[in-house]
Amino acid sequence: QNCFICGKSGAAITGSEMGCDRSFHLPCAVEGCCVIQYYLQYRSFCCDHRPEQSVQVVPEANTDCTICMEPVEDQRSYSTMVCLACHSAWFHQGCIRGVALHAGVGYFQCPLCRKGIQFRNEAFHMGI
After folding, report:
1. Does residue 112 share a domain with residue 56?
2. Domain named PHD-type: which ranges (predicted)?
C-alpha cells in the first residue's frame, strides 16, 4: 500500500471508517492530521474521518495553550483540544501529547482543573 501522506510504499495502517481506502505509515499520521486511538480496538482514522471533540465551545480571543502559553487557534481544529470538564483549558495537540507521555495513564489529567477520568477518556478518543 502507498501512504496517502508521503506517497511511499509500505503503509500498513488503514482507516477504520467503512469505505475508507486510505493507508498511511505510523510516523506520517501526525503530519497528515490522522488520529490513532491507542485503546480498546486500536482504531485509526484518516484526516477526513477522524473523530472530533463533542464539546461545542470555541476558544475566546487571545486564548493561550495552558502548557506552552502560545496562542491557540480561534476555532476548534485538529491541532487544539479543550478540557471537557472545565471548558477553559485549551491545549495544542503536541503539547498535551508531551504531558501524557510524561504522566502515564494513571496520572494523566487536565493540568488546569486536575479532572482525570473525563479528560483522559476524551484525550484517548482524540488519539492522545
Report:
1. yes
2. 1-50
Average pLDDT for the chain: 89
Domain of 87, in residue numbers: 52-127
Contacts from 9-13 at CB under 8 Å and sequence distance 24+? Answer: 13/44
The grid coordinates of residue 15 equal 482507516
Helix (H, G, I), strand (E, B) or coil at 15: coil
Q: Give dist(CA 110, CA 16) in Å, integer.
A: 28
Amino acid at 48: D
Grouping H, G, I as helix, E, B as strand and the rest as coil, residue 103 is helix
pLDDT tens digits for range 25-84: 999 988 888 998 888 888 999 989 988 887 778 888 889 999 999 999 877 777 889 998
